[in-house]
Amino acid sequence: MKVDELSTITAAFQGIKERAESRWQKLWHSGQPVILVGTATCGRAAGSLEVLQTLRDEVKKQSLECQVIEVGCMGYCYTEPIVIISKPGYPSIAYGHVNPVIAERLIKEFILGDNPCLEFVIGALEKNEFVPSFSEFPRAEYEQKIILKNCGYIDPEQIDHFIASGGYEALVKVLGMPPEEIIDEVKKSELRGRGGAGFPTGEKWEICRHSRGRPKYVICNGDEGDPGAFMDRTILESDPHSVLEGMVIAAYAVGARYGYIYVRAEYPLAVYRVQVALRQARELKLLGKNILGSNFSFDIELFQGSGAFVCGEETSLITSIEGNPGIPHHRPPYPAVSGLYGKPTLINNVKTLTYIRHIIENGAKWFAAIGTEGSKGTAVFALAGKVVNTGLTEVPMGTTLRQVIFDVGSGIPGGKCFKAVQIGGPSGGCLPESALYLPIDFDSLSKAGAMMGSGGIVVLDEDDCMVEMAHYFLEFTQWESCGQCTFCRLGTKQMLEALGEITKGKGKIEDIDMLAELAEDIKAGSLCGLGKTAPNSVLSTLRYFRDEYEAHVKEGRCPALMCQELIAYYILPKKCERSCDACVGTCTVEAISPNKDRIKVIDKEKCVKCNTCLVACPLQYNAIVKFSPPDQVPASR
Amino acid sequence: MKTVSLTIDGKEIRAKEGEKVLWVALDNGIYIPNLCVIREALQSPAACRLCFVEVEGKDKPVTACTEPVIEGMVVNTQGPQALRLARTAFELLMASHPVECAHCLSRDSCELLKIAPHLKVRLKIKRLRGLPRGLPIDSSSPLFIYDPNKCVLCGRCVWVCRERLGIGDISFAHRGFQRVVATFGDEPMARARCSACDECVTVCPSGALCFKDGKGPKEELNRPVEKSKS
Amino acid sequence: MTKEQVNHIQETRRILKQFSRKRGNLIPILQEVQGKLGYLPREAMLVIAGFLGIPAIDVYGVVTFYNQFRLNPPGKHSIRVCLGTACHMKGGYIALDAWKRRLDIDSGETTPDREFDLDTVACVGCCTMAPVTVVDDKPQAQVEPTKVDGILLSFELEKEKASKENL
User: In this predicted complex, what is the ipTM?
Assistant: First the structure.
């Protein structure tokens, strides 16, 4: 690149940056309080929009000089809605489980008065003498936020916030570098794709760079379809520009002219915020024709995925953009050689692309120093299921599962026992307690029978039946199979039928072996990644929890008391309180009635096993129990 | 065009570089089961998963329809791993294919009946569950019957209708286990434009599309190519 | 042709004006049309196929492939039961059973009076409030069988109130 072109770019960006920084300074250092409200999907579901409205109304009513802005998700989803108040003279304080009443109090007592309402505090953002800060939380010892750093702290709909926190500087830096050098840097960082398979990112870029055919495309894969995973959504909703910056850098490195960002239509907020981000980036010439006055042009279009899990697979994502059913095809050719419309196409996951700006800024060495031998950097996980702190976390590769579940996630709620952890979504597997010591990285997880996947961690406790879980995940992949290849279309269906019969107590002992054999063949014989990984949930549960399968088949018993056909509800006559009718009133199908002694009895014929009565029975009586197999229930008198 | 030499099942063969193993084998009298691939088409969908072979130096079986031949390649169509996968795939197809050969109008031209003995698989699959699809049989056309339950989703009819005839009246619809060859709106064939043409029937390998009189021409799409004398 | 069908065609044609005749636009077009009409009627699909110059079956193939698209008109109220992992573990399937029982329809169907349509959704990301049912685009927390009855009752009361006001 010519020297004068470079100086045009730097000068153009300098202007943008100065303006962004002055706005940022004005926001934070004008002596006025600032209120941040987390309005990502998780916050909204918990009612953060009502909280936002209350805060704005109160500010108006009290004619306060105070900014209320929307931010994304901090990752502490268990305590949404979250509000952060930064008032001069105080540290920035985060409040959890805020509702409109608390919001009103915060304004009246903290903004107007001087009472920081400590009873609602989660923690402070910076270290101070009054309130424990997030950095002092036990989980902080294990967490290292790189790509989640901005999430929850900047307004995703204001590009200035992103730029003021260092955004688009990496882009300016690469525009002065030869593309080969950028690819080399990414290669040296040893970054591996975060979509699941873990292919070395730099190598993919190099292949695409050297592929003939024009124009080239860059696609960001945000088709996060795993039930129970929401990392990509959070990043797109909380910090969309970091993804766009990664895409532009990638495009420059491989020589692409057009890009697509593929986001599920089920994520309307992410779709909206990406659209806003695209518009703002174009306005500042960070996207589009002659980016920042350089000779490099690249533009991105948003494509909304229409709800097919298989479109997370790169070849089917591409056929989907072309306007077809998302049917994968045989690789090679790989998309980097022949992808969208037969042209070289670089396709990377949201998280992978988000790492790029940090690698460019801080250097490959810095990145490669984090993590383990074969897996560098951090891993982002969505923690869900039977764990106290559900939400997002980012930890260095090599952190053990125990640390993530028990230290970051604070363990299992309700004093229950840990049973297993399902990692990697429907393509991943269930690992038992003995695997908790495992360091999280691409290779050790796949060795243990799970996989990194896109990063969903679901914790299971003693009340969860492993056969049922395997059935659940297989039902999902079976439903989402595109139906093209024989193994996936018919093989998973065969497995699902067999599993279904086992959960109903109708399975045969041969079925267990048939499942294992068929699972191996489907894994080896399927055309695409969906089919190749679909049997993992069954294979891993068979490997670690075969005894549960056998209990279902041989005894018709569900050890976790979960499989509906294998359990029965029973009211212990000795514990049932004559004067209490809680269960009778709550039963939705009128299956419970008192006998002549006013002891309640469940009509097994009518009972639909919805568990409502068990929840309703007051704790001091605790009279309702589940039995498995159902014939263990004593005959009613 | 560069030619390479390779061996398939011990037989030494010369072939065009990059040609797919499946065609090279078929043209040299070595049968490899296949349903979904069409020689004239640009790309194989690699969907039926029947043409697995083992290649020396590769730890897993590969599909012959997608594997290009290279110099010195050693292919084994009878390797135990490849046969295991092909058999399982075939068993899966048969487990949801109504086996009523005695009454089937297509029994003389049925390719499934050819593949079964080759893979040494019985038509009635014992270790798997029967998974009937329960779809209505369409006999609306005056010429042919369409029984989607017998369909193996090879896509030959779709290809002929679209690529060879340029009509495009039938194609795949729905997803997963429900995937089916259908007309627009899942309407009977007679209501779609295609009722008078029967090209699709001539290429169906599984009896899903068959002439009402049980006769009529059959075309073998992937016929071996005679070697040119030069 | 019914008046409704004519209307569908007109609406579809209006939407098509924003698009070029590129096959890659098929899915965005279908999304727009469904956003407007609530579903994808036969006549709309035919217009779209004509516009893009592709066989009608190709439009049908895409519509029947993706979860997002529907071929039947939706009900007045949409009930979406989340079957994400967290919801499943906390009894999402029990909630689904309860909805099916009460509405007397299966998942993917609309009640004969077109009041409700029932469907499942694979995770709406509100895992902390499991089991979740999204009722008319608003996620409802901890929807257990008793809450199903409660939600239906509130619709009933609303309807009663509305009909009284109309008298």
Answer: 0.95
